[in-house]
User: What shape does this take?
Amino acid sequence: MADAVQALLRPLACAHDWVERVLEPGDRAVDATAGNGYDTLFLARLAGPAGHVHAFDVQAAALEETGRRLKREGCEERVSLHACSHARMGDVVPAGVKAVMFNLGYLPGGDHAVKTVKEETLPALQAAAGLLLPGGLLTVMCYPGHEGGREECEAVAALLASLPLPQWRVVRLDSANGSPDAPFLMAALRVPCK
Ligand code: SAH
Assistant: This one.
């Protein structure tokens, strides 16, 4: 199926599409919720051997799975795995990153009790916004359908909506005819300097 159609059917595909347009070989990027490592690998491939990716997760099993995936693809040397909350991103990642991806909620197939919470997500988003270079992109996949999810997603949407023009452009992609519980994507572009 054409990429454009994939992006309409799956908001995460849309996030990938946008990140692909900004992240270049040699750039640095962050995966704030490594999970099974698919997004970490995606970022590592785009950043290339001269780039670097920082990936965060609070679950050891998630980081192990991410590490195995990176190793299989020969990308492990360009990724730092951080076994701590993404709320600590500002202490761990040097400023000057081109893309930051968040995929909120819980790990599919994992422990549903371990999920992102707004008390950690909001400071992490603030840190992420502070790390981005002009022309850099922050993407957040939001899942309002699980317990606590709606509250988190609304807080995320409010925080991103407060990023000021003209330095930021913030968009939200959600299903206009679907369930209010449907996942949605938000993205914030730090507008490039003229
Ligand atoms: N719901 C998504 C997957 C989310 S995975 C989907 O369907 O694709 C979310 C990951 O975030 C999990 O692996 C979880 O362990 C991790 N996580 C939860 N709280 C976190 C935190 N404070 N910092 C970093 N990672 C966190």
